[in-house]
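Re: the request from the purification team.
They wanted to know what the chain is likely to look like in 3D before they choose a buffer screen. I agreed to run a prediction and write the result into the notebook, where they can find it.
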Amino acid sequence: MKRGLSAFNLVSLVLGFAFLYLPILLLVVYSFNASQLVTVWGGFSTRWYASLMGNRLFLDAAWVTLRVAFLSATLATVLGTMAAMALVRHARFPGRTLFSGMVFAPLVMPEVITGLSLLLLFVAIGFDRGFWTVTVAHTTLTLCFVAVVVQSRLVSFDRSLEEAAQDLGCPPAKAFLLITLPVIWPAVAAGWMLAFTLSLDDLVIASFTSGPGATTLPMRIYSQVRLGVTPEINAISTIMIAVVAVGVIAAALFTRRQETRRRADERLAAQDV
């Protein structure tokens, strides 16, 4: 059997990676450009990172973005996990199809429509736009992604383990925390990480639902770009890429470690039997 990539597959792979990552690589390289002109290389320098540390507008926007992303990802993980359990554990209940459609609707709904509808809702109920409206909007956006990830793990979960614990007198809530949650934890962590990165990246929905004092970093960058791209924007974008990359790598390592531990436990259990 012939092993390795063929020339066609190798060229396709290189072109695919170049299409995806070459613009990001150029942005990172030019964030270390000493010149004030974005497209003219003037030598290596970290001056724009130092300048960024004194830019209060960018720092405030970054702080708002991180808080919104953390809170919305946490809320979306809790609600998305509950929704996934309802869909997997209760295959038939009145309104299940409607409930499933409502949970997964944001996956296919244009962000402009989602943002506009949330704006109308907040105006209708008299809720002042600000930090919490952006958090609620991002929770609505990312909840469905968490539900998809957790649901895929729950489908393959052997529920007899949880039922055995309950037969021995363990309350349902405690059985979930001690039996089910440790097994599905990699999926829950992956869902939280996905929700966190989606919130960091969102511009459209935040533009509709933000208010005074709640300008997120993508909104700040977009408003600055309209006046012209500066090296500081390259620097802050590079920092965002680094934060997301570290988070994704950490989540992948954590998931791999949990999966390895689960397989080892299963092998030990099989040997005992």
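For the purification team: DSSP finds eleven helices and no strands in the chain.
Please add any questions underneath this entry.
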